[in-house]
## 1
Amino acid sequence: MLYGIYNAYWTHEWSANYEYYIPKVKKLGFDVLEISCAALTRHYATDEKIRDLKKCADDNGIILTAGYGPTKEQNLCSPDEEVVKKAMTFFEMILPKLQMMDIKVLGGGLYSYWPLDPTMPMDKEKDTERAIKNMRKLSKVAEDCDVTLGMEVLNRYEGYMMNTCEEALQFIDAVGSSHVKVMLDTFHMNIEEDNMAAAIRLAGDKLGHLHLGEQNRRVPGKGSMPWQEIGQALRDINYQGAAVMEPFVMKGGTVGSEIKVWRDLVPDVTEEILDRDAKGAVEFVRHVFGI
Ligand SMILES: [Mn+2]
């Protein structure tokens, strides 16, 4: 198994200078850095910048994965065909860029949009039908680029299409692509699943990507998640993918506002303290999971 961390742990905005963080995460003990696709229209908008980023990752022995929350204007399940078209155009633009970086996994609420706006209409049945139909089309591009799309199961406050692993399995079965898989996140599972380890076992070889975090999104080891049981379930299914911690502990900026972090979860937060906690957390999960 590969151990990673999401870059937005350190930043207030989704796009960042990843070349600064790649050597850092290597030094802290990680195999993987997860980056946001928002950067592909900002810091890494050109192929030249993308090649530089890939070289930096290669030089440091770091594997990249990607995450994304599509905006309301690029929503694959929308009844508005223009909005669906914008989503398809966006994904068709970014998937070859991910391929250029040898990124094999893109995870998130890719079937809909994020953050959820509860004032927007939600028709779970019809939205799901549209998402399945459009995800089938998108899966052809993903297959061509050899990027697996992780359908992230989100909690009820952030998504309505799939809140449990079981719902995600039904969705990916309906899509029927080798490159569309289930993605689980302990933070969301803690709200929705009866039993997190059972949900991981239910996903089995359909689990394509995994996010780790405590119930308040601090780094693993600082809260009360059943890490032993989670590790046992991952060993039971012989999970070979990446386990990427996704801590959010700082208020402020777009990240703080969209994640709804209204207080610093680490007192007197500094980069040194964030680094220390990340290093401790990856040591902790490597030890507890034992794979
Ligand atoms: Mn997540």
Note: The mean pLDDT is 98.
## 2
Amino acid sequence: MEYSRTAMSLTPSATLQLSAKAKELQSAGRDIISLSAGQPDFPTPIPIAEAGIDAIREGKTVYTASTGIPELKEAVAAQYSIRRNMHWLPSNVLVGCGAKHNLASLIRVAIDPGDKVLLPRPFWVSYPEMVKASGGIPIFPEECINGSEIRKAAGKGAVGVLLNYPSNPTGFVPTVSFMSEIADAIAETDMWVISDDIYEDLAYLDSGVPHILDFHPELKERTAVVSGVSKTYAMTGWRIGYSLACSEWTRLAGILQAHSTSNPCSISQWAALAAVEGKASREREEMHRSFHMRRDLICELLDRVDGMEFKKPDGAFYVFPRLLTDPQKLDTNRFCSDLLEEEGVAVIPGSAFGAEGYIRISFAASEDDIRRGIHRLKEFLHRRLNT
Ligand SMILES: Cc1ncc(COP(=O)(O)O)c(C=O)c1O
């Protein structure tokens, strides 16, 4: 059988592949320290889990409206209307099977084959593949994303742009001047925007995370805000994400969803409602505090590692150091697989995020694993630098 050219052009997710390899070695009895995870290492808070159990007991186990239960759409619309200081209705909300699903559906209905979409580098692994899967062409800025790169992309015919702050993989949180420059440039173009805000609640600055809609609220008509409960509430396996966009974009993505997955899991939606309604705010704050402490710890440990440089992340749970070993010899895929084989430490190669020469280290791990993992990385790098 011949498979479609589109399918054949897709690359498997490097993050999922590496995590799978680490698990395989672990099952074979190796002492593996995983600093590769893209998910909180906490259990889902009990009040949320109980809402899911109640949903099962109450028989809320049948198909729901394909775009999500009205209660959850209302709660999301109300919460984000306050959060972004603008008005959204339930008809602007689509509940999907994880933020990833919302992203894929919104991209799918926004582009036609051959359309170009600007993806700031380093990008989250799935963006280019989602664009390609929809027949689009990902384009990347020549330099760091800024106003002139956006104007340049618009000049080359880009129809849309994906923003992700706090960023996976860098943990970067934009400053007010950075975000206002980006927002000004986008406002001058006709590009649509998808703002992937999945890490919005995991930021470590008191000043919060500047958002494109703070600067140009009129962009609401062509901006989709995507978030969900996965990272904030340790609910990655429940698979609930949501988006807020103009009603037509939401309607079209909802039709696509209805024909592909019907609705997101009914039980998970009731559990997500408990999360959005604030039933686990205390647990959420505790997890946030832990991530903040671990961020400080990992940065302190990495400061003492030779052979790399990094910027302290202000959000998410990743550090993205640049390796300073001989660039001629540097292939980060190889580096990461050697690190896993030799030292039993799993991290993700920067090439997966369009940034060769970097590695992504996750601090969604216990303090002990962070300490032992960075110690082993230090030894490994020491050997590399001296051979
Ligand atoms: C930047 C980014 N967006 C979206 C997602 C997907 O989130 P979800 O698990 O809700 O699909 C992830 C998960 O790793 C992510 O890192």
Note: The mean pLDDT is 95.
